[in-house]
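Minutes, project check-in

Agenda point 3 was the complex the collaborators sent over. CS summarized: two entities, 228 residues total, and the question is how they sit relative to each other. Sequences were read into the notes so everyone works from the same version.
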Amino acid sequence: QVQVFQSPGEVKKPGASVKVSCKTSGYTFTSYGLSWLRQAPGQGLEWLGWISTYNGNTEYAENVRGRVAMTTETSTSTAYMELRSLRSDDTAVYYCARVSGGRSYLDNFDHWGQGTLITVTS
Amino acid sequence: DIQMTQSPSSLSASVGDTVTITCRASQTVSRDLNWYQQKPGKAPNLLIYAASSLPSGVPSRFSGSGSGTDFTLTISSLQPEDFATYYCQQSSSTPTFGQGTKVEIK
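CS then shared the predicted structure for the full assembly.
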């Protein structure tokens, strides 16, 4: 069965960087892209970007473009999201989610990780 | 980006009730509309995709309809495990979500 497992939560200071990992199993890693999303405390869901696990192409949301980098490691079926220059309003639960449409970022999110709480505080 | 507006923001209902949640897009998304259920402290779970299709394992009391800009999620015969927050999401362009509808016990 498809499984998506994320790294544990972290506490960071403003201006620092964080790298969250997302390890998948139960399917062919390169057949489905992965999106990253976040949810601030008590708020709704925000899409941050997508990476093609097939060729490494990325699409980033405008509000994090320039601060975010998404990468993959095919040998371990793992994706990573690095967010730099952290601010207090980056405090959120970060999710990775498999995109059901294969090689497009325009589709539904059919399997999600359990979430990683990133707290940005001085 | 396409804005998604859900209504109501919250509702109270009883076990056995039929509940309807609406989602409106700021421009047409054809049938590229998905619904998710989220329980406290958990990741969202895909409930409906392509406006009206159910993933395997989702109970048939959940149904979706609509196209273009107006969509509906209906839960027939509400069960105790259905009390949660529901989000719509468009996948026609850069993904965006509605603000959520919290379904609470009356």
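Noted in discussion: The mean pLDDT of chain A is 97.
Follow-up: revisit at the next meeting once the mutant set is ready.
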